[in-house]
Amino acid sequence: MSIFRRGEARKPKSAFREYAEALIIAVVLALVIRQFVVQAFKIPSGSMMPTLLIGDHILVSKISYWFTDPHKGDIVVFRFPKDKKRDFIKRIIGEPGDEIQIASKVVYVNGEPVKEPYVMHTEDSSIEGSHSSRDNFNPAVVPPSHYFLMGDNRDNSMDSRYWGFLNRKEIKGKAFLIYWSWDRTNHWPRWQRIGKVIR
């Protein structure tokens, strides 16, 4: 009966075992990164056009708000308040304490019109009257720990104008990069968008 002694060479691992261990480590790291650091998302709708297009694949930083709060202009992924199994992506327009108002499609924060070069409107005319909050939104103050979000495609976005303020705890992370983009109409990659920083 032989006993393994200090100094003796250990039996080398088999190639299968080495590959298996490497695969397990890679999977564990991928799960940890996805859970706590970065997660990939695909844009399914046109509510953030022209900033984000249908078929854009983006990366979202889940650590961006560990030590700082979200700010106006950030594009964030969050759990939809009406159905928390769904993820939405919108731009932060108002922070806690801000007064938000929309008049004839123009957004005002604390009484000042917001410069929004990223916004797209598909209709020139405004919907008037109290039956719709799309183009006119009565002044409202964002509550503590909440945010007011809107899509860049203003005439075609389901956002805070319809479902209210978003609780900070529902924010999953900040979108920061387009890593792939597929034009499903032409069945071709949008090469010029790959690697684009999201702003």
Structural write-up:
This protein is an alpha+beta fold and 199 residues long. The chain has two helices and twelve strands, in the order αβββββββββαβββ. The protein has helices spanning 15-36, 160-163; strands spanning 38-42, 56-61, 75-79, 87-94, 99-103, 106-109, 112-113, 137-141, 146-150, 166-167, 171-183, 188-189. β3 (75-79) and β4 form a beta hairpin. The chain is elongated. It starts with 14 loop residues before the first helix and ends in a 10-residue tail after the last strand.
Give me a quick take on this structure.
This protein has 199 residues and is of the alpha+beta class.
Q: Looking at the structure, what is the overall shape?
A: elongated
Q: What proportion of the residues is helical, as a percent range?
A: 10-25%
How many DSSP H or I helices? 2
Q: What structural class do helix, strand and pairing data support?
A: alpha+beta
H/E element sequence: HEEEEEEEEEHEEE
Characteristics:
4-stranded antiparallel beta sheet; single chain; 13% helix; alpha+beta; 12 strands; elongated; 8-stranded antiparallel beta sheet; 199 residues
Q: What is the topology?
A:
Blueprint (H helix, E strand, L loop, with lengths): L14 H22 L1 E5 L13 E6 L13 E5 L7 E8 L4 E5 L2 E4 L2 E2 L23 E5 L4 E5 L9 H4 L2 E2 L3 E13 L4 E2 L10
